[in-house]
Amino acid sequence: MKKKFNYLIVLFSFNLFAQEIDCKVIVNSNLVDQTNQKIFKTLEKSLSEFINTNVWTDKKRLVEEKTSCSLIINLTNYSSSNFQGTFQIQVQRPIFNSNYDSPILNLLDKDISFSYQEFQPLFFNSSIYESNLISLISYYIYIILGLEADSLKINSGTIYYNKALKILNLAQQNNYKGWNQIDGNRNRFWLIDSLLSNTYFEFRTILYSYHRQGLDIMIEDPVLAKNNILKSLMLFEDLHSRRPDSYLIKTFFDAKSNEIVDIFSNGPKVKLSKAIKTLNKVAPFFGAEWKKINY
Q1: Domain check: are 46 and 94 in the same one?
Q2: Domain that holds residue 264
Q3: Do residues 132 and 58 both lie within one domain?
Q4: 113 and 156 share a domain?
Q5: Last residue of a domain, one of 166, 196, 226
Q6: Reduced to 3 states, what is the DSSP secondary structure of residue 112?
Q7: 1 belongs to a structural domain
Q8: Are 214 and 232 in contact (CB under 8 A)?
Q9: Do 27 and 72 belong to one domain?
Q10: Partners of 175 in the beta sheet?
Q11: What are the pLDDT digits (tens) for 185-222?
């Protein structure tokens, strides 16, 4: 009887805990002149299994605590197992005491190229470079985990950003674009460099205060939550004064602009005039969105 009881505990634990990522992968080949679509479906399935079944951290999570994300690969060229296209990555974070998921990343990587043979096994080894496809996926997984961690506990994403940096350093030894600083001013190099740089320290503070001290208490005290969100957004002033064209600022508002409009257009009102000026100053590229805020 004791053995049976222990066995049931093991089964229960297996079902209760799960890997960290719940990612929907879509491979869009509409722009590729290829009659045989099987290779693209195989790639889609292989990437989905690789992301969702791999163990990326040493932390156990409940099934409902998985990080929810989507990866859309829009292919523009395919020839002899060589792929080119873009990555569209969207990530959501659950908000405490609600059924709402808040977007924390909405990023487009335009410099994607990799090789893949149909049914090729995908394995991640943090110590060696396996392929550009493995490097791309694992790099962004750790960026995602780092952003989510920073939104839950201040500066707790460093361990994941360092893993992403290690992947970048290994990938730089090859000839694929997007891993080096000379490949442009908004790429994988500059993203992780900025996240780990003291120059942009406010960004990670904003991630925490916006989510943990703002959205996570919205149900309990919406006025306090909104004011805390306003305080977090005001921190962009100093960051903008040092780096007015910061990749991180653009990345934040790519994910958050619609949400910010919704937060301050509904529910109890708070003083917004100063915040609107700040938003137009630090994120003028979303000026049309800020005009939608009903205050």
Answers
A1: yes
A2: 204-290
A3: yes
A4: yes
A5: 196
A6: strand
A7: no
A8: yes
A9: yes
A10: none
A11: 899 999 999 999 999 999 999 999 999 999 999 999 99
Three state DSSP letters for the chain: CHHHHHHHHHHHHHHHEECCEEEEEEEECCCCCCCCCHHHHHHHHHHHHHHHHCCCCCCCEEHHHCEEEEEEEEEEEEECCEEEEEEEEEEEEECCCCCCEEEEEEEEEEEEEEECCCCCCCCCCCCCCCCHHHHHHHHHHHHHHHHHHHHHCCCCCHHHHHHHHHHHHHHCCCCCCCCCHHHCCCCHHHHHHHHHCHHHHHHHHHHHHHHCCCHHHCCCCHHHHHHHHHHHHHCHHHHHHHCCCCHHHHHHHHHHHHHHHHHHHCCCCCCCHHHHHHHHHHCHHHHHHHCCCCC
Per-residue pLDDT of 145-195, as tens digits, reads: 999 999 999 999 999 999 999 999 999 999 899 999 999 989 999 999 999
Q: What confidence score (pLDDT) does residue 65 get? A: 76
In a domain, residue 9? The reply is: no
179 lies in the same domain as 34: yes
Q: Is the sign of the CA dihedral 209, 212, 213, 214 positive or negative?
A: positive
115, 129 in Cβ contact below 8 A? no
Tokens, residue 246:
């910061």
